[in-house]
Design goal:
By secondary structure, the protein is mainly β. It has a single domain, classed as SH3 type barrels (Roll), CATH 2.30.30.100. The chain is 14% helix and 38% strand. The chain is built from 1 helix and 5 strands, in the order αβββββ. The protein has a 5-stranded antiparallel β-sheet. The longest helix has 10 residues. It starts with a helix and ends in a 10-residue tail after the last strand.
Length: 71
């Protein structure tokens, strides 16, 4: 699970993040961290829509190579 410190860093920097949800790259969500609580993270996508995602997914900067989730 991603820590509050990591989420706060992404929010303050405005850095685009990739949320890896499964083994299929097309299912990744890319956007900016807006807010979070104990279970969920809100990500604002480029089209300005907000997506509510589980904190247990993999969160990483978009410019880093994609991490493949453990199956």
């Amino acid at each position: 699970m991603i820590t509050d410190e990591q989420l706060n860093h992404y929010r303050l920097s405005g850095e685009m993040v990739r949320v890896v949800r499964d083994g299929i790259e097309d299912n990744d969500v890319k956007g900016i961290v807006v807010a979070w609580d104990d279970e969920h993270v809100l990500i604002r996508r480029r089209n300005r829509k907000v997506v509510k995602l589980d904190r247990n997914y993999i969160y990483q900067p978009v410019d880093e190579p994609r991490i493949h989730p453990e199956s």
